[in-house]
UniProtKB/TrEMBL annotation:
InterPro entries to which the protein is assigned, alphabetical: AA/rel_permease1, Adaptor_Complx_Large_Subunit, ARM-like, ARM-type_fold, Clathrin/coatomer_adapt-like_N, Clathrin_a/b/g-adaptin_app_Ig, Clathrin_app_Ig-like_sf, GAE_dom
Example of a GO MF term: transmembrane transporter activity
Protein name (record): GAE domain-containing protein
GO cellular component: cytoplasmic vesicle membrane; Golgi apparatus; membrane coat; plasma membrane
Top-level taxonomy: Eukaryota, Metazoa, Chordata, Craniata, Vertebrata
Organism: Aldrovandia affinis
Region span, Disordered: 1-29, 1108-1129
Membrane topology: Multi-pass membrane protein; Peripheral membrane protein
Subcellular location: Cell membrane; Cytoplasmic vesicle membrane; Endomembrane system; Golgi apparatus
Length: 1313
């Protein structure tokens, strides 16, 4: 018995045999239906199949049953809308099930094989042969009518001309898909032009006032009684006129990008046809009365005779053209339906084959033509159409119902277009009404149609469902298929060989067509272009993988063949697969074979594959060493070039050592093309094996005399590489500076050369390379620098900077000038060039200009200052990177001379700068103000302005620094407290500002209450006003714990500065004695103790702080002890610097130490007690009091300095230790004059130790030791091994990036215990 798998096996073997010669000749890609139907042709298929002869000949059917003109027009519109809804449903099905065959394929996939077969059976048996026969007869009738003006043409003549029409169009469709679509496009355009003429003539009639039957009062005048049955018949007639709207779904697989073009074509065509139908009927009504229209046998001809006069012959010709295009469209689409049915096993397998060269389904077309010719021989075709019309429209409804079923059965199925289920429901209700009415009105006709359809049931079970057919029958079918294949020169398409042809209805098999000449044009795999198209059209990643896996399997099989002429073709496809990220390693040995091939076309693909699939780590790369060596001596320069490119791309150190002499030989060759490639290959060799540089030094020097720019470019790159890697070579090539200068002058002064000109610059790539080499040669060498000074000045003055190429050359010139020992005037010229770059519209050029200026601002400060205005303008740039670079450069330009003007610009920028730049801007303003402040008042005003604008973005050390500044400005205490009080009343959201304001009110509250201030208008406040302000801070949800601590301390201090509200202060303090915040609670308890137990000491403890000396032992790195929220950190710093806490001499000092920390005996505390972490407490006479209040004197903290370089100091400090865990802090400080930015730390420890690094406090270390960056590291040491840690330090200082690694083997003593 013949079964499906056996047949498919034969098919595969046939395809393999037939494809043996494909790649040898032209790389043909196997036989498959071509995707040649674009959007225009798709629209032509739909419009051409819908618009047949009906609209020209008999639009009277709708009017006759509608009983009035107005209702007839409504029927045309409604029917067009319903057709559009059905087309929407088919659009979703078409992209969800992207298979040719239209509703047959959809019904078969959704409802099963029997339902699909019945749809195919009725179409094959009756529908399409009869429709095509009728359209062909209509064509012949209108063609012959002018020849028989007084009588009707002979019936035999009509049938003969119709047969000629069918045969001609069948030949066109068999010849080429493109020809068929072009015919369809042309004749569709012709019928649209004819209808456009009718519509235009109708509009002319309307303009003349001929619109009697279009007026509302006359449009609905019925010429017979309205009847529901007749109206239903009108809708049925209208739906017949729109028939063919689903034909594009029959050729889905031949559409270009069906997921896009199928729905687009439907959405364009259906509204267009509806518009044409409605307006054509309106035009008819303007020229004829309803009675005249109903009496006419050819409405368009009568319309032409009335309005076109002598040009009335246009209408019969238009009808003929329309029907001719209709026959072509019907042949084209119906043959695809039969092709799809045969492919699914429901028709003979021969119909599923296509021509090996033309790629058209010739058997399906011939079958369609033959069945239509048979219909022409019968006189009962019109009766058959009436019988099966009901069945045809029944399957429209079944298909749309299948859409709803598919939504329910497979809701997660991929649907590129998904419409609402309301539309298919509306469509089904409309068709149910029409079909039920048809069944009711003509039950006999519908019953005969159903009977004809049911005749397909036994055929299905005998031909399709029955597998075990007699062997003789299978043999007969095999032989017939064999003969048909040879006769038509057809095979199965690629993709159907491996199982896509399922169980076949008639069990036809593939024939053995060996020896027929077909084998030379077949290929077992597709072309590269076709494979790329299929992969790109994959809807899911799984579908893409499936395509690639099948293609890779075919490539593997061909690689295993001993004599395979398509290796290069297959390897090219494999390289594309590799580019997509899929494994392609099995092609490595094929690369080796192709490289050894004597044919250039194969060598080229082989070397390309080696560069993509091989690298120096794979052993297969060693196999091509000998081939490369042989090809380096090849007589063809192109083969030598392939070898050189491959060696330069993936040559390993061993290959470079073996082939270096060959490269040196080629550097001395006479061919410039080879010398250019060899120079670049030598660059790769020097990078891989630096000691081989000596071998190329003489050759590289000789290449500088070459005139070819490519060789010069390669030589300069090679010399640059040699000089960077060897100081001895650098000294040798410094003697070549005059030669390089001459080459560069030749480029600068040369005239226009079209070969090398880029935007008016002569070979800017070579100029840039030479300038880079000169920079290396002139660095730290005065003689070489003097030799190139004049050249650099010439380049700087003669190069046009209006184009990017010129800007690149000028930029390299500037870098060279700044890097060598150039003259001062030349350096000023370089800075001016960078200044011109700042005015460029290109943001990239402005950015690199400011980056370069930042590098030289310290050495050429005055020259850069000239461009200060332009740099400040860049702060307004929209680009964030340009804005950041402009900010850094503006801060670097601040000096004592321009501090006032530049600070105004920076403060203005701070008010509108992005949030990510506020912290950096505020830090820079603070540093500049501290270094260059013209007066203390200006200094204080500037800092207060920053705090008011960006108080939430300033660093922690800002508050103690400002407090220290205020204490030193004794003449400005009243001014400062008044200004801060106003700021406090205005805004309490800026925490840093509020903290300083609270501190000043606590210290200088008496000055505020006096209301005396010369520098500013004093504020008249009362004690209650001040306490209200502080209490607002204490109670605000915006206040941090540290801020509340400042406010509470200020409130306490006011108890010694006011007289009438001490009880209120006592009550405020007592409230916070039970605060949930521990620090605030402890402070409140201490203050309560002062009120109750030690009230006699309160005035002394809370008296005004003395002036704080920034350089005193109590102030380190800009931080006031007890004045910030980082009390413990300050203690650590003091311990690190070796300061010793002095022992106070009396009880008062003990208490002072307890509340704020005193550094000198018999002296009040020099800093405000902080709400977080008390200061140092000394033992003495007040020991009992200390124990009573719970003094917290931290033990000495062990630390060790691990890194000190470039002004950056890194200290390791032990914070805590348990049996198995250690907590350490890495503290970085900066002693330079500029901020250290992008500071990062990375750490590594042995595997037995677990490491956890917390986030650093900042990535910027302020200049001049004004702040620190701290990062905490947790070390878990369960095995208690000796601790070791390696730390990588990275940062940017003065525009230069530094990176160092530190090995820490000795931790502080307590850690190592």
């Amino acid at each position: 018995m013949s079964d499906g798998p056996r047949q498919r096996g034969k098919a595969t073997s046939v395809a393999e045999d037939g494809a043996s010669g494909s790649d040898k000749d032209s790389g043909n890609s196997g036989v498959a239906l071509k995707k040649e139907i674009g959007l225009v042709s798709a629209c032509g298929i739909i419009v051409g199949n819908i618009i047949g002869s009906g609209i020209f000949v008999s639009p009277k059917g709708v009017l006759e049953n509608a009983s009035s003109v107005g209702l007839a027009l409504i029927v045309w519109i409604v029917t067009g809308i319903i057709t559009a809804i059905g087309a929407l449903c088919y659009a979703e099905l078409g992209v969800t099930i992207p298979k040719s065959g239209g509703d047959y394929s959809y019904v078969k996939d959704i409802f099963g094989g029997l339902a699909g077969f019945l749809r195919l059976w009725i179409a094959v048996l009756v529908i399409y042969p009869t429709n095509q026969a009728v359209i062909a007869l209509t064509f012949s009738n209108y063609v012959l009518q002018p020849l028989f003006p007084t009588c009707l043409p002979q019936d035999n003549g009509l049938r003969l001309l119709a047969a000629v029409c069918l045969l001609l169009l069948t030949w066109v469709n068999c010849s080429s898909v493109r020809w068929a679509t072009r015919v369809q496009d042309v004749f569709t355009a012709g019928k649209l032009l004819a209808l456009a003429l009718i519509i235009v003539m109708g509009l002319v009639q309307i303009c003349k006032g001929e619109y009697y039957w279009l007026e509302p009062t006359h449009a609905f005048e019925s010429f017979q009684d309205y009847d529901v049955g007749l109206i239903a018949l009108a809708f049925l007639q209208g739906s017949f006129a729109y028939g063919g709207w689903n034909f594009l779904n029959y050729v889905t697989e031949e559409l270009v990008d069906p997921y896009t073009n199928l729905p687009r074509a439907i959405f364009i065509s259906i509204p267009l046809v509806t518009f044409v139908y409605v307006f054509a009927n309106i035009a008819y009504i303007t020229a004829m009365s309803p009675q005249e229209l109903l009496a006419s046998n050819a409405v368009a001809v009568t319309f032409g005779e009335k309005l076109l006069g002598v040009m009335s012959w246009i209408m019969p010709i238009s009808v003929a053209l329309s029907t001719f295009g209709g026959v072509n469209g019907s042949l084209f689409t119906s043959s695809r339906l039969f092709f799809a049915g045969a492919r699914e096993g429901h028709l003979p397998s021969l119909l599923a084959m296509i021509h090996v060269k033309r790629c058209t389904p010739i058997p399906a077309l011939l079958f369609t033509c033959l069945s239509t010719l048979l219909m022409l021989c019968t006189s009962d075709m019109y009766t058959l159409i009436n019988y099966v019309g009901f069945i045809n429209y029944l399957f429209y409804g079944v298909t749309v119902a299948g859409q709803i079923v598919l939504r329910i059965k497979q809701p997660d199925m991929h649907r590129p277009i998904k419409i609402s289920l309301v539309w298919p429901v509306i469509y089904l209700l409309f068709w149910a009404f029409l079909l039920i009415f048809s069944l009711y009105s003509e039950p006999l006709v519908c019953g005969i149609g159903l009977a004809i359809m049911l005749t397909g049931v036994p055929v299905y079970f005998l031909g399709v469902y029955w597998d075990n057919k007699p062997q003789c029958f299978n043999t007969f079918v095999d032989n017939m298929t064999h003969v048909g294949q040879k006769f038509c020169l057809v095979v199965y398409p690629v993709g159907d060989q491996g199982g896509k042809l399922q169980k076949r209805g008639f069990d036809f098999v593939y024939g053995d067509i060996a020896g027929s000449g077909i084998s030379q044009d077949m290929s077992p795999s597709v072309r590269l272009q076709e494979m790329i198209r299929v992969i790109r059209s994959a809807r899911t990643q799984g579908e893409e993988r499936g395509v690639i896996q099948r293609e890779c399997a075919a490539i593997r099989a061909q690689f295993r063949q001993a004599d395979n002429g398509g290796r290069s073709h297959n390897l090219a496809k494999l390289l594309y697969v590799h580019m997509l990220g899929y494994p392609a390693h099995f092609g490595q040995m094929e690369c080796v074979r192709l490289i050894a091939s004597p044919r250039y076309s194969e060598k080229r693909v082989g070397y390309l594959g080696a560069m993509m699939l091989l690298d120096e780590k794979q052993d297969a790369s060693l196999l091509i060493t000998n081939s490369i060596k042989n090809d380096l001596s090849h007589s063809s320069q192109y083969v030598q070039s392939l070898a050189l490119c491959t060696l330069a791309c993936m040559g390993s150190a061993e290959m470079c050592r073996d082939l270096a002499p060959e490269i040196d030989r080629l550097l001395r060759a006479s061919n410039s093309y080879i010398k250019k490639k060899a120079a670049l290959c030598a660059v790769h060799i020097v990078r891989k094996v630096p000691e081989l540089g000596e071998l190329f030094t003489p050759s590289a020097r000789s290449l500088l005399s070459e005139k070819n720019h490519g060789v010069l470019h390669g030589a300069v790159v090679l010399i640059t590489e040699l000089c960077e890697r060897s100081p001895e070579t650098l000294a040798q090539f410094r003697k070549a500076v005059p030669e390089l200068v001459q080459v560069m002058k030749g480029l600068v002064m040369s005239g226009y050369s079209p070969e090398h000109n880029v935007a008016g610059i002569s070979d800017p790539f070579l100029q840039v390379r030479i300038l880079r080499l000169l920079r290396i040669l002139g660095r730290n060498d005065e003689v070489a620098s003097d030799g190139m000074n004049d050249l650099l000045a010439q380049v700087a003055t003669n190069t046009d900077s209006s184009k990017t190429a010129g800007s690149a050359v000028l930029y390299e010139t500037v870098l060279t000038v700044m890097d060598i020992k150039s003259e001062s005037g030349l350096r000023v010229l370089a800075v001016n060039i960078l200044g011109r770059f700042l005015l460029n519209n290109d943001r990239n050029i402005r950015y690199i200009s400011m980056t370069s200026l930042q590098k030289i601002v310290q050495t050429d400060h005055n020259a850069v200052q000239r461009h200060r205005g332009t740099i400040v303008d860049c702060l307004k740039d929209q680009d964030a990177s340009v804005k950041r670079r402009a900010l850094e450069l503006s801060l670097a330009l601040v000096s004592a001379v321009n501090i006032r003007s530049l600070m105004k610009e920076l403060l203005l920028f701070l008010s509108c700068c992005p949030p990510e730049l506020r912290s950096h801007t505020a830090s820079g303003i603070f540093n500049a103000a501290e270094r260059y402040a013209p007066s203390q008042r200006w200094h204080i005003d500037t800092i207060l302005h920053v705090l008011t604008t960006a108080g939430g973005d300033v660093r922690d050390e800002t508050v103690p620094n400002l407090i220290q500044l205020i204490t030193t400005a004794t003449d400005l205490h009243s001014y400062t407290v008044h200004k801060l009080y106003r700021a406090l009343l205005t805004d309490i959201s800026q925490q840093s500002l509020v903290q300083v304001a609270c501190w000043c009110i606590g210290e200088y509250g008496d000055l505020l209450l006096r209301g005396e201030c010369e520098e500013t208008e004093p504020v008249q406040v009362t004690e209650d006003d001040v306490l209200d302000a502080l209490e607002t801070v204490l109670q605000s949800h915006m206040s941090a714990a540290a801020t509340r601590g400042f406010a509470l301390t200020a409130t306490m201090k006011l108890s010694t500065r006011i007289t009438h509200n001490v009880d209120r202060i006592r009550s405020i303090v007592s409230i916070y004695g039970s605060c949930i915040d521990v620090e605030l609670q402890q402070r409140a308890v201490e203050y309560n103790a002062l009120f109750k137990k030690y009230d006699h000491m309160r005035a002394a403890v809370l008296e005004r702080m003395p002036v704080i000396d920034k350089n005193s032992p109590g102030h380190t790195n800009g931080e006031t002890v007890g004045g910030t929220v980082k009390g413990p950190d300050q203690t650590k710093i003091k311990q690190e610097e070796g300061t010793v806490t002095p022992q106070p001499a009396n009880q008062v000092c003990d208490l002072l130490d307890l509340l704020g920390g005193s550094e000198e005996p018999l002296q009040p505390c020099p800093a405000l007690p902080t709400p977080l972490g008390p200061g140092s407490v000394s033992g003495g006479a007040g020991g009992e009091l200390l124990d009573l209040l719970g003094g917290l004197d931290p033990p000495p903290v062990p630390c060790v300095r691990v890194y000190e370089k470039n002004g950056v100091t890194l200290t390791l400090q032990c914070d805590g230790q348990t049996d198995t865990a250690v907590t350490v802090s890495l503290i970085a400080s900066n002693s330079t004059h500029g901020d250290i930015t992008q500071f990062t730390l990375q750490a590594a420890v042995p595997k037995s130790v677990q490491l956890q690094m917390k986030a650093p406090s900042s990535d910027v270390i302020p200049a001049g030791g004004l702040g620190q960056v701290t990062q905490t590291v947790l070390l878990n040491n369960p095995n208690k091994v000796s601790l070791r840690m390696r730390v990588r330090v990275s940062y940017i200082a003065q525009g230069t990036t530094f990176q160092d690694t530190v090995q820490i083997d000795s931790f502080p003593a307590t850690v190592c215990k």
